[in-house]
């Protein structure tokens, strides 16, 4: 017992001593600078050089004032590793990428090849895999420089939008960096990225999706196409659809949406994808204020079904024409066929001439009218 | 014990001489000779230990009222606790306890006139309940036994009397329900109590310390309680209670981890509320043990785990703090411990002042001076409050110490250290045994024969 006590006191003394010897490797939270997002642009000077922008969040002492401070450092370099070392010599604290949640690829850069940076972000130990990659228009630096007035923490506005934690827009296609990296190597499914634009008065506008040819942006869909793409890609997309019935504007708000498809491979030469889209909606806006009868609702539903089927077929055909497969039809085909050696080649032959049969069933659940 | 069972009895004159020799220089001894025309008797007793009213009424007055010495002797013998000692050591021991030695001719009798200085039954002070009985054990073992028998009225409640402590001769009673208690536990208890070697046993916790193994440990494996209702409930669950004279506490054994998180309120409240209260206590356990160490780990090793808002908040409020996070935590926690300790020891009137002053300095001034971060104050307050949520004081003290081990681990190894610490603690707790029963067994009563009570 005595021996044990003496030993315990000895251990305690030693550990108390070592506590005072914290070296310079021990960096507390206040000795770190948190890089919240990274931007990559092509340099105008040379095709081999890139502009790397780092947005660093500066903690404010008083959280109540709500002021947000950030620092944007742009470095020109041929590699990002080199750029980081250069930035390190410009700041007084340790750079920490643990909270880096966004990589913005400038449009010009994204149309070239993003694989190098994407690989770096998933390779680095301290980077999170649930980063939000996005295409930035006009440049990544511009997007990072924008500070929307609603933002309370530096760089947070863009993540709140991209993650859909904050706003829930039907035009935002949420993409994580692990998913991007997976799709970049996946056979039969191509990556997509949301597009962030700097609008007037520092407002960020995210309403398009970029379809990618594995590592470079191939085509950017328009706003309405993006919405339909999201309708097909996601479940329970909350959006509105407008149409005109006898010249009168009608808008519905979707409650539940569900898209499913089936690949039909026979007869040969007439392969088709049957898309079934089920939408449950409430009537939100209508010019005429009189009450609707069930027959009129049926009529509105019929018009919607026709119009949406047409619009969706157009989008699918547009996507097919680019040769890209962001919805993963190829992966489904490969996954449901057994001839492992040849199935993807077969798919490559089928996909260019495949037909889309889209059937939309929109049901207006409620007229939204309270009596 | 009646005199008939003794074949031999002491020689009065020898005994008297022996006693006088032993009691040389003992000031509070009273030697009174009673005489009438033909007879005489001698009373010998400790003034401090005997009740003077009893001595006057039953011994002195009667001597002159009763006509013959024969009747007087029979009168004394008629008291149930009167003993005729067989040997001198027995004589001495009972005298020290508070018996009057009565020499009648060549007979020696011990008359029980023990003076009991027990206060009234006080309300419980360390285990408070909101609605429920307020009684707590007194310093008198007989009163305590009475309190228990009153609540547990069956002949199955057995009581075994023992004494421990070579000098203190502390009386203890082992209480158990013979139909429910585990014989192996009883055997083990008797063995350990008989092995107890200390001279003085003054408190129940001393018995706790001397009988349990290993001696160096953070978590109590015996329950000390001052509440008769808790004792009764535990006895009804098949546990063994040990009452110790001259302390207001009983020992309950075997005790498991969960027992220390049970308050008597749980049974008084409606069951879902009882479960909620118990849940709160376990949450409090984790908060008080892990919060400070998590703070160290998050601020110094793994800031990426927190949300960005919190990260920046901590970083911002730590901007003026001149030393590393673990110093901050240890300083603040030590300051809090000093406050707690001071408020226990100080008289009530001053204690309040000390707390207010200390709290002000810690809470406001330290943050405004930029010595500690705001978050740290919240954390210390949370740790202090949650620590007091644990109902049994011995356990909450153990937990108080445990958190420093976790801080140390977090300081050296970050989050990994904390995880290892949790694993090690669980392994340690499962390895503990309380009288052969696994300590971390979460429910004291087997599910198969579970009644309306689960643990205590």
From TrEMBL, chain B:
The chain crosses the membrane at residues 240-261, 282-301, 321-339, 371-392, 404-429. Pfam families: GerA. GO terms for biological process: spore germination. GO terms for cellular component: membrane. Keywords: Coiled coil, Membrane, Transmembrane, Transmembrane helix. It comes from the Bacteria. Residues 179-206 form a coiled coil. Belongs to the GerABKA family. This is Spore gernimation protein GerA. It comes from Paenibacillus glucanolyticus.
């Amino acid at each position: 017992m005595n021996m044990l006590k003496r030993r315990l006191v000895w251990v305690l003394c030693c550990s108390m001593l070592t506590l005072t010897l914290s070296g310079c490797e021990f960096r507390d939270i206040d000795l770190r600078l948190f890089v919240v997002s990274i931007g990559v642009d092509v340099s105008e000077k040379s095709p081999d050089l890139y502009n790397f922008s780092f947005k660093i969040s500066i903690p404010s002492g008083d959280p109540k004032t709500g002021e947000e401070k950030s620092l944007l450092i742009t470095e020109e370099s041929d590699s990002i590793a080199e750029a980081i070392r250069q930035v390190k010599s410009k700041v007084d604290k340790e750079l920490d990428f643990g909270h880096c949640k966004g990589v913005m690829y400038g449009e010009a850069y994204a149309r070239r090849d993003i694989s190098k940076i994407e690989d770096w972000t998933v390779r680095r130990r301290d980077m999170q895999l649930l980063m939000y990659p996005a295409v930035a228009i006009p440049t990544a630096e511009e997007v990072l420089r924008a500070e929307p007035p609603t933002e309370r923490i530096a760089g947070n506005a863009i993540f709140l939008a991209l993650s859909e934690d904050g706003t829930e827009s039907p035009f935002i296609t949420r993409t994580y960096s692990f998913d991007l990296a997976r799709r970049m190597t996946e056979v039969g499914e191509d990556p997509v990225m949301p597009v962030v634009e700097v609008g007037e008065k520092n407002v960020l506008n995210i309403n398009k999706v970029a379809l990618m040819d594995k590592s470079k942006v191939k085509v950017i869909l328009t706003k309405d196409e993006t919405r339909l793409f999201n309708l097909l890609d996601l479940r329970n997309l909350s959006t509105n659809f407008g149409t005109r019935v006898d010249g009168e504007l009608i808008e519905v708000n979707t409650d539940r949406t569900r898209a499913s498809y089936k690949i039909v491979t026979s007869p040969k030469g007439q392969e088709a994808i049957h898309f079934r889209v089920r939408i449950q909606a409430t009537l939100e806006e209508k010019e005429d204020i009189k009450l609707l009868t069930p027959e009129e609702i049926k009529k509105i539903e019929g018009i919607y079904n026709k119009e949406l089927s047409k619009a969706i077929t157009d989008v699918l055909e547009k996507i097919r024409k680019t040769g890209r497969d962001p919805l993963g039809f190829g992966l489904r085909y490969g996954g449901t066929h057994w001839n492992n050696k040849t199935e993807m080649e077969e798919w490559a032959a089928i996909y260019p001439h495949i037909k889309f049969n889209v059937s939309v069933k929109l049901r207006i659940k409620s007229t939204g009218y309270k009596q | 014990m009646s005199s008939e069972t003794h074949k031999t009895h002491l020689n009065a004159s020898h005994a008297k001489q022996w006693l006088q020799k032993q009691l040389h220089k003992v000031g509070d001894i009273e030697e009174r000779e009673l005489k009438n025309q033909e007879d005489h008797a001698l009373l010998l007793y400790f003034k401090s230990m005997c009740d003077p009213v009893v001595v006057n009424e039953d011994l002195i007055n009667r001597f002159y009222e009763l006509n013959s010495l024969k009747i007087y002797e029979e009168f004394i013998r008629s008291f149930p606790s009167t003993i005729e000692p067989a040997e001198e050591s027995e004589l001495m021991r009972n005298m020290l306890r508070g018996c009057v030695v009565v020499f009648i001719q060549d007979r020696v009798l011990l008359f029980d006139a023990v003076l009991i200085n027990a206060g009234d039954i006080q309300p419980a002070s360390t285990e408070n309940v909101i609605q429920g009985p307020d009684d707590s054990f007194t310093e008198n073992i007989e009163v305590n036994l009475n309190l228990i028998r009153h609540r547990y009225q069956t002949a199955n409640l057995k009581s075994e009397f023992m004494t421990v402590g070579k000098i203190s001769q502390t009386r203890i009673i082992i209480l158990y329900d013979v139909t429910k208690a585990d014989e192996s536990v009883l055997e083990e208890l008797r063995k350990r109590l008989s092995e107890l070697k200390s001279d003085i046993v003054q408190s129940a916790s001393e018995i706790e310390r001397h009988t349990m193994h290993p001696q160096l440990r953070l978590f109590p494996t015996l329950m000390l309680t001052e509440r008769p209702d808790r004792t009764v409930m535990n006895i009804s669950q098949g546990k063994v209670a040990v009452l110790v004279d001259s302390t207001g506490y009983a020992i309950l054994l075997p005790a498991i981890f969960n027992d220390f998180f049970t308050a008597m309120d749980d049974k008084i409240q409606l069951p879902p509320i009882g479960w909620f209260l118990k849940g709160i206590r376990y949450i409090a356990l984790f908060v008080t043990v892990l919060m400070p160490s998590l703070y160290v780990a998050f601020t110094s090793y793994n800031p990426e785990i927190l949300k960005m808002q919190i990260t920046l908040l901590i970083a911002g409020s730590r901007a003026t703090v001149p030393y590393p996070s673990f110093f901050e935590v240890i300083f603040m926690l030590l300051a809090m411990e000093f406050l707690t300790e001071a408020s226990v020891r100080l008289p009530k009137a001053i204690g309040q002042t000390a707390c207010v002053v200390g709290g002000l300095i810690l809470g406001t001034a330290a943050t405004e001076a930029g010595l500690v971060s705001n978050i740290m104050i919240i954390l210390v307050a949370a740790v202090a409050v949650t620590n007091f949520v644990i109902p049994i004081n011995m356990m909450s003290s153990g937990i108080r110490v445990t958190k420093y081990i976790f801080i140390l681990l977090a300081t050296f190894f970050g989050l990994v250290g904390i995880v290892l610490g949790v694993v090690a603690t669980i392994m340690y707790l499962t390895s503990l045994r309380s009288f052969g029963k696994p300590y971390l067994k979460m429910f004291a009563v087997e599910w198969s024969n579970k009644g309306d009570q689960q643990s205590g």
